[in-house]
Amino acid sequence: MVYKIFEKNKYFGDLCNNFEKIKNFDIKDFFINNNNRFNEFSINFMDILIFDYSKNIIDKNTIFYLLKFIKEMKIQSEINKMFSGQKINKTENSAVLHTVLRKPENFNSSLNNLNINLEVKQSLKKMKNFSYNVINGTLKGCTGKKITDVINVGIGGSELGPKLVNNFLKDYRNNLKIHYLSNVDNNNLIDILKKINLETSLFLIVSKTFTTSETITNANSIKECFIKKFGEEKNIFRHFYAISNSINNPIKFGISKENIFKIFNWVGGRYSIWSSVGLSTMLSIGYKNFKKFLYGAHIMDMHFLHEKYSKNIPILLAVISFWYNIFFDVETEVILSYSTRLKNFVDYLQQLSMESNGKNVDRDGKEILYNTSQIIWGGVGTNCQHSFFQLLHQGTRFVSCDFISFVNNFHNSFANHNINLLSNFFAQTKALAFGKKFSKKNNNIFYKKFFGNIPSNSIMFRKIDPVSIGILLSMYEHKIFVQGVLLNIFSFDQWGVELGKSVFKKIYKCLKRNKRINYTYDSSTYGLIKYYKKWKK
Ligand code: F6P
Question: Which residue of 90, 231, 300, 492 could cross-link 474, Cys pair, CB 3.0 to 4.6 Å?
Fold first, then answer.
């Protein structure tokens, strides 16, 4: 019943048989039986990245049938639909074309829409000119001073991608200081205002819709401060820019038309770092590095589009994740980044994965009776080794892990730290997979037992640079897309966030106007608001 949809696929039975055969195997058995396991279960991507998936509870047949299974689901046709601009975001009647944004100019692709190609070129040119002018000091603030700080005001996809990449490429940054303002909590605004000087700051109001309450509230408060200090509203045009799909809303806000950078309708918020939403990143690392970042994503796009499935990293990541989700009932995926530069990766991936695939109805509108997106969590190694790794090594929950690392840092100083960091990266995947043999001596010391058999993928890059981060993000985007196809859901909408927004509006009105609380509220919400009002006095 639960797996009705999968049972229709003629390879599901083979997968079930394979599962019955190997579900009680230990990862160490696979290695004992096959000296060549690493070579057979790893992929060297252009000498830039090694993807090792050998420490998983899979054998050759698992992969064989998983790949047959997705072929049967016509995955290639789904991939082609996305790349050629068909409207695969059905519930929003939109194409999904973030891959076009990273396509080098003059690159011949399956997308023949000349208008889109031209629009993308013009958008990139506008970003390039603007970033040159800000970085070299040609563009000045209303008092004639050079710009020193840029504040990205945006939330969700309008913040997470740019912030992640900007922090990852810290060593590539110029002198501009970039700040990210997302939460509506006034502490965030106050903290940033303390750090900046309004007359030398640019405000990028990033919102595809330009209606997102948090972003508009923050933007309005900054505008108020600005007008209070510089008096004239006309000064705003030197300091406020909009990055949006809407033209009217930014204009109503007071931003001049030429200060609007377009987000195309066919780019989803969580896939928008490659568009003008990436402007804060371009300002920080410069146009050339931003192009390298786009290039990294593009080469992964081409790998995903053309590589055979048995060597295709996003495809393998997706089917392995599906394997654990459907067959082993694994509910969470842990992302462990062995680089401080990647500290924002989990936040980014949570939106990418859970907003895309956290769905409870399938493409035919039927209620889903299997688990969809895994819960994504994790952190930075080595820090998390000293917090939640206890649960990974000896807890009762079965999780699967992705370990990510970079062999070369930007800095060569304190070289021993890098050796130490990478040794930890190798050690943890090994310890989790193989556990510890019980020696005669401590056989009966129950708390020193390590059963091992915790699966992980290792994703190890040669170095920290713009190309690597482009590859990494594109790789996960495609993994999540394939998972969506496997789960028979629409990955590119996010209707689940709407209810909270509409309930918020009603409560906000009531609090703002200090109106009587609506007695039809449930007693919990009613009781909490009553306390809020009492304590607010
Ligand atoms: O509420 C969810 C969401 O729509 C995300 O998908 C999006 O990234 C974020 O809000 C911000 O939306 P906008 O760019 O329209 O302000």
Answer: 300
Angle of helix 60-72 relative to helix 75-83, nearest 10 degrees, comes to 60
Distances (CA, A) of 431 to 53, 321, 385: 15, 21, 12
- The single residue of 159, 214, 333, 355 carrying the catalytic annotation is 355
Distance 76 CA to ligand 1 centre (A): 29
- Claim: this prediction has a pTM higher than 0.90: yes
DSSP annotation string for 50-80? EEE--SSS--HHHHHHHHHHHHHTTHHHHHH
Q: Tokens 């593009």 label which residue?
A: 298
First to last CA, the chain: 56
Beta carbon of 208 within 6 Å of any ligand 1 atom: yes
Strand-strand pairing, 201-206 and 240-244: parallel
CB atoms within 10 A of CB 496: 12
478 an active-site residue? no
CA 304 to chain centre: 18
- Whether residue 297 contacts residue 471, with contact meaning beta carbons closer than 8 Å, is answered with yes
Q: Which residue has the tokens 């055969």?
A: 21
Task: State the Cα–Cα distance between residues 491 and 479, nearest whole angstrom.
Answer: 11
Mean pLDDT across the chain: 94
Q: Where are the beta strands (DSSP E) in 381-516?
A: 400-408, 456-463
As a whole-number percent, the residues of the chain with pLDDT over 70 amount to 98
- Nearest CA to 349 among 376, 319, 386, 325? 376
355 is annotated as an active-site residue: yes
**What is the residue whose two structure tokens read 């090694």?**
50
Contacts of 473 by beta carbon, 8 Å cutoff, 6+ apart:
161, 165, 273, 297, 348
The whole-angstrom separation of Cα 235 and Cα 251 is: 15
pLDDT digits (tens, 9 = 90+) for 205-245: 999 999 999 999 999 999 999 999 988 777 888 999 999 99
Written as six digits, the tokens of 108 are 């011949």
**How far apart (Å, rounded) are the C-alpha atoms in residues 530 and 528?**
5
Answer left, alpha or beta for residue 378, where phi above 0 means left and psi between -120 and 50 means alpha.
Answer: left
Residues 255 and 257: their CA atoms lie apart, in Å, by: 7
Return phi, psi of residue 361, to 5°.
Answer: -125, 145
Three-point CA angle 150, 263, 501, nearest 5°: 85
Q: Strand 400-408 relative to strand 240-244: parallel, antiparallel, unpaired?
A: unpaired
In the structure encoding, which two tokens stand for residue 344, read together?
């924002």
3-class secondary structure, 122: helix
Asked whether the predicted pLDDT for residue 1 surpasses 50, the reply is no
Give the ranges where 373-459 is alpha helix by DSSP (H).
389-394, 415-434
**One of 308, 386, 440, 512 is an active-site residue; which one?**
386
For residue 56, give every residue at least 6 positions away whose Cβ sits within 8 Å of its Cβ, in sequence order, or none: 27, 41, 320, 400, 455, 456, 457
Ligand 1 contact, 497 CB (< 6 A): yes
- In angstroms, what is the C-alpha Rg of the chain? 25
The rounded distance, in Å, linking the Cα atoms of 56 and 49 is: 19
**What average pLDDT does the segment 314-319 reach?**
98
CA–CA gap between residue 401 and residue 334 (Å, rounded): 5
Task: For ligand 1, say whether the CB of 249 is within 6 Å of any of its atoms.
Answer: no
